[in-house]
Amino acid sequence: MRRFALLLAMVVVAGPAYGQKVLPEFLMQSTAGPIELRYVDFAWNPEGFDAMQSGANHPAAGRNWMLALLRLRNPVCFQGRTLPVGASLLILDPKHGATPMSFEIRDVDMRDMDIKPNVIGLPPKGDTIKVVPANFEKVPDTKARLEIVATEDGPDTLVAIHFGDRKATLRFTPRCE
């Protein structure tokens, strides 16, 4: 039930007009290798995304976003850091000052979840495992809603985040070397 509450908490209500435009429609899931991820399909909002990249004033750029819940069946390595078995969050942090937009992987204890189900909750406290720049590329294919897909690439697992006309791919390896 707490997992469902977390995912319901990922619904944004940043203001009546803005909130109505980006409300998710479905709870989505993708699994590959040791990673199962769950997310809600926010609608693409180019102005919001651009503000997150540039640090401009916009409801979407005023806080960080839980993009996906990662359930790990085995430990994996991400950018030189080991992610433990269990629940982790993939968080998108907007640009703040000189700090660029970034992805954060945070280890969380699902028992500590206490989020109101009608708003997007701030990511819960936990241990930050790794923060890396969110390097999105502009792509010709525009997705109307957030799509996050896990795929196997040999022994590695790729997590592709496709939002509007932007795409980023994260690589998870079986072990850190």
Structure description:
The chain has 177 residues and is mainly beta. It has one domain. Helices cover 13% and strands 46% of the residues. The protein contains 3 helices and 10 strands; from the N terminus they run ααββαββββββββ. The strands form 3 sheets. The protein has a 6-stranded antiparallel beta sheet, with no helix packed on it. A two-stranded antiparallel sheet has the order 4-5. It has a two-stranded antiparallel sheet with strand order 9-10. Strand 9 and strand 10 form a beta hairpin. The chain is globular and about 40 Å long. The N terminus is likely disordered.
Count the domains: 1
Shape: globular
**What helical percentage do the residues reach?**
10-25%
Strand order of the largest sheet: 1-2-3-6-7-8
Short summary:
This protein has 177 residues and is mainly beta. The chain is 13% helix and 46% strand.
Comma- or semicolon-separated keywords:
mainly beta, six-stranded antiparallel β-sheet, 3 helices, globular, disordered N terminus
List the helices and strands and how they pair.
Elements: H1 2-8, H2 16-22, E1 27-32, E2 35-40, H3 46-54, E3 65-72, E4 76-78, E5 81-83, E6 86-93, E7 102-107, E8 127-133, E9 137-153, E10 156-172
Antiparallel strand pairs: 1-2, 2-3, 3-6, 4-5, 6-7, 7-8, 9-10
